[in-house]
Amino acid sequence: QVQLVESGGGLVQAGGSLRLSCAASGSIFSINTMGWYRQAPGKTRELVATITRGGNTNYSDSVKGRFTISRDNTKNTVYLQMNSLQPEDTAVYYCNARGTTIWVQTFDSWGQGTQVTVSS
Question: What's the chain's average pLDDT?
Fold first, then answer.
């Protein structure tokens, strides 16, 4: 079992910043890709950003230049620094991790989500 715990969401005014964190724990052997996704009311879940164990990153066009994803492999933790937030960034943000357990099984785990609300 692999658990993900997110923190750092909240309410911020447009133009402000927030930093999300997500720590993975459990029977982890290695984590390949960690990422952030979001789901706004009435919309499907969408990719925000991902990062590989080696540090290769991928961003959605809507957040490029404003958000930065990073990770600490020693802590099995991924971060999302969000700057220049806009009301359209309002959503529940979910952490995702994909890797291998100590029993040599693959996992694809999700956090419980953290609310980010940007007021205009």
Answer: 97
Burial class (CB in 10 A: 0-12, 13-18, 19+), 94: buried
Q: Which of 15, 32, 36 is nearest to 95 (CA)?
A: 36
Write the secondary structure of the chain as one string of H (helix), E (strand) and C (coil). CEEEEEECCEEEECCCCEEEEEEEEECEEEEEEEEEEEECCCCCCEEEEEEECCCCEEECCCCCCCEEEEEECCCCEEEEEECCCCHHHCEEEEEEEEEEECCCCEEEEECCCEEEEEEC
- Write the pLDDT tens digit of every residue in 53-105: 999 999 999 999 999 999 999 999 999 999 999 999 999 999 999 999 999 99
